[in-house]
Amino acid sequence: MTSCVEVDLVFADVVAEPGSAIRRVLFPVRSIISLTTAIGPHSGLEVGLIGDEGMLGATLLMGVDAAPLHALVQGQGTALSMSRESFLSAAAVGSALHRVLFRYMYVLMQQLAQTAACNRFHVVEARLARWLLMTHDRTHADGLHVTQEFLAWMLGVRRVGVTKAAGALQKRKLIHYARGEITVLDRVGLEAAACTCYAADCATYAAGMH
Questions:
Q1: What residue stretches are annotated with the HTH crp-type domain (predicted)?
Q2: What are 17-35's pLDDT values in tens digits?
Q3: SS (HEC) of the chain
Q4: Rounded distance between C-alpha atoms, residue 88 and residue 95, angstroms
């Protein structure tokens, strides 16, 4: 896309607020964006992830120019930025980009619904394993910088809950966790530790995007 500009996204930067006008869209390249919803004035919960498989601002395709969710950078790195006008021109009805992004919107809606159910019914350890796998899929790297506080906010639990869950995964030698750095040691084992939602995520993506 010739009208795209490469930008650097910085960890924890807010890139969208609920109700704010969408003036630019972002296509993460080597970055990850978390979609979160507020739970009271001082806490939130992650409901979706956007990596190099998707984009931020896809609701423009439905004629909605206001951001539906709070979005912040979970994994810093590069992204392609495109103005609202350029995007709408490139994604005009009938274009290849329009068709691909409509399929992506289906996948994203399924992810949001799956995450809502996951947060309600599954234990923190299994949810953390799923979150790590989803992040691993998007970063394509075994190492991840994330603070305990940030993880607690993403998962909607207290920091002690994160400590317990991460400690359990580390005890099983699935991850190494120290001073805000998580390293995936055993991908297969982590998949076994995750709740069934991760397999559902993968099936949705395979069906929706291929």
A1: 122-188
A2: 999 999 999 999 999 999 9
A3: CCCCEEEEECCCCEEECCCCECCEEEEECCCEEEEEEECCCCCEEEEEEECCCCCECHHHHHCCCECCCEEEEEECEEEEEEEHHHHHHHCCCCCHHHHHHHHHHHHHHHHHHHHHHHHHHCCHHHHHHHHHHHHHHHHCCCEEECCHHHHHHHHCCCHHHHHHHHHHHHHCCCEEEECCEEEECCHHHHHHHCCHHHHHHHHHHHHHHC
A4: 11
The pTM for the full model equals 0.91
Extract the tokens encoding 98.
């329009």
Nearest residue to 27 (alpha-carbon basis) of 64, 82, 86:
82
Nearest Cα residue to 123 out of 151, 148, 155, 154: 155
Going along the chain from its start, the domains and CATH numbers come out as: 5-118 (2.60.120.10), 123-194 (1.10.10.10)
Q: Which residues pair with 46 in a beta bridge?
A: 36
Which positions ≥6 away from 41 have C-beta within 8 Å?
Answer: none
